[in-house]
Specification:
Elements: E1 2-5, H1 12-21, E2 26-31, E3 36-37, H2 43-46, E4 54-58, E5 61-64, H3 66-76, H4 89-109, H5 119-140, H6 153-162, H7 176-186, H8 189-197
Parallel strand pairs: 1-2
Antiparallel strand pairs: 1-4, 2-3, 4-5
Helix pairs in contact: 1-3, 1-6, 1-8, 4-5, 4-6, 5-7, 6-7
């Protein structure tokens, strides 16, 4: 398998999960401006949507969208306990968290990285994120991870997206339980390895 990624982007979530699952895989970095990979490949031929991540499972079979990719990986190595079994209420709870992170956290960050958005609109996004972080804080006061069963693919996704906060003027110290949660996840060997491989500290 090959993961197409950009350092620090949402593709870091499946990168972490591939390492948590102990799977063999390749990495290929994508320049998201030029849409060319580090090996000179036209990334639009890999993923016509033009963004990361994309997981090339085998030649001719490419899976896109982070939440789908991480669930695929989790099901491929079920013994790693990265997602509850399919067709269980716990799995639907996991999907609820993944959808919350996608729609309420990930996409609300997007305008903050876009220079074309006016400052007033960006401030509204920061306020919206603060409300979402309040919800996460209330949950994490009583839980070490998002799911009762422990670390899951949703935690990798939230770790990556919440990590963008300092880059857009949001101080996560306002949410101590979320901060402690991030510190726990940052200590996982797979997380350290993924960040090192992407050239991040």
């Amino acid at each position: 398998m090959k993961l197409y990624y950009s350092p620090g982007a949402c593709s870091q979530s499946p990168h972490i999960i591939l390492r948590e699952a102990g799977l063999d895989f390749e990495l290929e970095k994508v320049d998201l401006t030029s849409k060319v990979t580090e090996r000179g490949r036209d990334y639009m031929q890999v993923n016509p949507r033009g963004y990361v991540p994309a997981l090339e499972i085998e030649p001719g079979w490419v899976l896109t969208e982070g939440p789908a990719i991480v669930q695929f990986i989790a099901d491929k190595v079920s013994a790693a306990n990265l997602a509850p079994p399919p067709d269980t209420m716990e799995r639907y709870e996991l999907q609820s968290w993944l959808n919350f992170i996608t729609s309420e956290i990930h996409k609300t960050f997007s305008p903050l990285f876009n220079g074309a958005f006016p400052d007033e609109a960006k401030e509204l996004c920061r306020k919206q994120l603060a409300k979402r972080f309040d919800l996460l804080e209330a949950h994490l006061v009583h839980h070490h991870y998002l799911m009762p069963s422990g670390f899951s693919v949703a935690d990798a996704y939230l770790f990556v997206t919440s990590g963008w906060a300092p880059h857009v003027g949001i101080d996560l110290k306002k949410w101590p339980s979320l901060t402690a949660y991030r510190e726990r996840i940052a200590m996982r060997p797979a997380v350290k390895a993924a960040m090192a491989a992407e050239g991040l500290t």
